[in-house]
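Dear H.,

Thanks for agreeing to be a second pair of eyes. The structure we're designing against is below in token form, covering all 236 positions.
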């Protein structure tokens, strides 16, 4: 049975314990991923959240309303099959971390970036022994190899479910440091969003908001919060 049947056939979805973790059954049938793998997750809380998404479906299934299920599918079907490659892709953000690239002007924006970002670079140095260097402008700066290696080691130690969440935490913010801080529970995703948007917020203050850009930003923020929730559910 495919986990993505077009129409609802079950009365209730249920999270169940199974060998290797927790699954979800629909009318007694186990849910499978789009690639037909068993939908097996590491925590009961995560399975219950997936079951709740299936229970909330109407007659026709709408995958776009099921972010937890989609993230679990991605972890199983996509990340697990290329775990090392995904970890390396995420770790590469350490070399171009948003927090390391500062404005040349005006002074108020420079001060705002420093006040918001310096502390999180200090956190990465204390947490992982990864002291990243800061530059001005957009010309790439070489980061210390030992710092990048420390960050890479932390990412490489994650399982497919953790990597699925971290992929969005890092990709949406543009910062490996912020993504890891959210994953470690040192920072909330909502605050990470605000920290990652300092430059955009500054531009809006100067020139006003663009309606289309604001709509896109709202969707990205929602995805960031969903990634944080997925990480937390996987560890509950």
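And this is the sequence the design step returned. I haven't edited it by hand at all.
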């Amino acid at each position: 049975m495919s986990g993505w049947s077009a129409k609802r056939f079950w009365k209730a979805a249920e999270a169940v314990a199974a060998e290797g973790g927790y699954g979800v059954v629909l009318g007694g049938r186990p849910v499978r991923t789009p690639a037909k793998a068993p939908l097996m997750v590491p925590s009961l809380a995560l399975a219950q959240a997936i079951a709740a998404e299936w229970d909330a479906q109407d007659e026709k299934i709408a995958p776009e309303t099921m972010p937890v299920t989609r993230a679990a599918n991605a972890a199983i079907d996509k990340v697990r099959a290329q775990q090392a490659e995904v970890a390396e892709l995420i770790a590469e953000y350490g070399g171009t971390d948003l927090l390391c690239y500062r404005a040349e002007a005006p002074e108020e924006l420079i001060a705002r970036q420093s006040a918001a970002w310096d502390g999180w670079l200090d956190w990465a140095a204390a947490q992982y022994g990864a002291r990243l260097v800061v530059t001005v402008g957009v010309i790439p700066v070489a980061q210390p190899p030992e710092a990048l290696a420390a960050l890479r080691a932390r990412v490489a130690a994650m399982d497919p479910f953790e990597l699925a969440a971290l992929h969005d935490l890092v990709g949406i913010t543009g910062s490996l440091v912020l993504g890891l801080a959210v994953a470690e529970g040192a920072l909330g995703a909502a605050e990470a969003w605000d920290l990652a948007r300092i430059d955009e917020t500054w531009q809006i203050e100067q020139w006003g908001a663009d309606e289309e850009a604001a709509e896109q930003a709202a969707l990205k923020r929602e995805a960031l919060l969903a990634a944080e929730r997925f990480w937390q559910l996987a560890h509950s």
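Two observations from my side: The CA atoms of residues 108 and 202 lie 10 Å apart. The first helix runs from residue 44 to 55.

Warmly,
E.
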